[in-house]
Amino acid sequence: MKNLSNENVIHITKDGIQYLQFRKLLEYNRIIKHGYSLGINLNFRMAKMDKGRSQGNELYKVIESYKNICNSIGEDYINVVKTNQEHTDNIQIVNKKVNKRFLDINLEKYKNTDGLITNKPKLLLSTTNADCILMMFFDPVTKTIANIHSGWRGTLKRISVKTVEKMKKEFKCNPKDIICCICPSIRKCHFEVDSDVKEMFELEFQDIEKFNKIIVKQEMQQKWNIDTVLINKIILEQTGLKLENIIDSGICSVCNSNLIHSYRVEKEAYGLATAIITLTGGKVEK
């Protein structure tokens, strides 16, 4: 079995469940718990109903996946709070659970939302991906966490920067204290676009220097490869994060699709991985 551990992440297998943890966040393991799910046996997607497959079966699989990953990091899956993710730049503050005895998933409250922030303990903030970028934020000074979904549309809308701005405004966070961990996602090697998307990125990020390293034209084709991870690193540093606090897993979901869900590989039958982060201590507010 391939091990994805590197200088920034540790690949863990526990009771048959595989996940990644960031070495930097593990330095604060008494304050936070976190993980990024691996393996196609964990699937957090509520797919549209197909013939012979019921919504109940889909929900059961999602709940079991949350149970498994949460048990692995020593937390109660009931406290999961999940964004609905519609490629927006909308970020909500979470102060308490909506459901008392069930996960907060597929809720109207989190419709049209792609990021969550809290300073309340025991709330398991969850985002999901199958190539898109997921970012977990942690401010060890104010004890504030955030979890965001940033596909290429979210990157164009600078949702990562807007998350930092909201953490500053609502929780008095200093960007110099904030740690941002970038989960596995599609990388420049496989994120291929046509001219329309390429032009949107050129227009939005024309202030970034050395753009020729971020957008590269393919030889003999009207196709371009874009490094959306590098864009997020640059704009986060511009907003005040220290470069050493922007921690990248460095893992491509497409290159490692045997362990990580990838829409570009799995197509319409794609599954979803999750990133989860929570503050420890105290009781969950409901």
Explain how this protein is built.
There is one protein chain. The protein is of the alpha+beta class and 286 residues long. It contains 7 helices and 15 strands. It has a 6-stranded mixed sheet. The chain has a 6-stranded mixed sheet with strand order 5-6-9-8-10-14. The longest helix is centred in the first third of the chain and has 18 residues. It starts with 8 loop residues before the first strand and ends in a 7-residue tail after the last strand. About 2% of the residues have low confidence.
Quote the distance from N terminus to C terminus.
41 Å
| Order of strands, widest sheet | 1-2-3-15-7-4
Estimate the global geometry from the Cα principal axes. globular
- Structural category is alpha+beta
Radius of gyration: 18 Å
Can you lay out the helices and strands and say which pair or pack?
Layout: E1 9-14, E2 17-22, H1 23-26, E3 32-38, H2 55-72, E4 80-82, E5 91-93, E6 115-118, E7 124-129, E8 133-139, E9 144-150, H3 152-156, H4 159-171, E10 179-182, E11 192-193, H5 195-204, E12 215-217, E13 224-226, H6 228-238, E14 246-248, H7 263-266, E15 273-279
Parallel strand pairs: 4-7, 5-6, 10-14
Antiparallel strand pairs: 1-2, 2-3, 3-15, 6-9, 7-15, 8-9, 8-10, 11-13, 12-13
Task: List key phrases describing it.
alpha+beta; 6-stranded mixed sheet; 15 strands
Summarize this entry quickly.
By secondary structure, the protein is α+β, with helices and mostly antiparallel strands.
